[in-house]
Design brief:
This protein is mainly β and 151 residues long. The protein contains no helices and 13 strands. 0% of the residues lie in helices and 58% in strands. Strands 2, 4, 5, 7, 8, 9 and 12 form a seven-stranded antiparallel β-sheet that branches. Strands 1, 3, 6, 10, 11 and 13 form a six-stranded antiparallel β-sheet that branches. The protein is globular and about 45 Å long.
Length: 151
């Protein structure tokens, strides 16, 4: 199973906007297995991060080529975006993952402990094939890394 890493280093999020987006095509599956957020804000700043499914996808995303966790992995088929000209419409349902933190030197490291914990992106239909990580509230600077597998 090929593993990849998508990251934003020293990013200052805009509350409510996507920080990283993940999109798959027909018969493709992306499994998010880790999320790491490290705060680098100069003072105490609270952020709430959320991973949400999209009901309409990003418009004109700026692509990031994911890093291969193994040099023998093939090129990733999951499209990773760092920004877009148009934000996605996200589901009204609660986020599928969320975490609040103080961005002044703190770290959050979430790891899927079982297969049931994995965050899935699959298919080619909006609502299933795109997920975005956003700072729902707060603009504290930090570094964000997401590890995912493709099957």
């Amino acid at each position: 199973m090929a593993k990849y890493l998508a990251a934003r280093e020293t990013v200052t999020p805009v509350a409510g906007n996507m920080v990283l987006g993940f999109t798959t095509g027909l018969q493709e599956i992306c499994k998010v297995t880790e999320i790491r957020i490290g705060g680098s804000a100069a003072s105490s700043t609270k952020n709430l991060f959320a991973m949400r499914r999209s009901t309409s996808n990003l418009t004109t995303p700026t692509a990031q080529t994911p890093a291969k966790k193994s040099p023998t992995s093939p090129a990733a088929y999951t499209d990773v975006a760092t920004t877009a000209t148009g934000e996605p419409t996200t589901a009204a349902a609660p986020a599928i993952w969320s975490e609040a933190m103080d961005m002044h030197g703190n770290v959050v490291h979430w790891v899927a402990m079982t297969e049931a914990d994995v965050l899935l992106v699959l298919g080619a239909t909006a609502g299933n094939n795109e997920m975005t990580l956003e700072s729902t509230t707060g603009t504290g600077a930090g570094t964000i890394e997401v590890v995912f597998e493709e099957v």
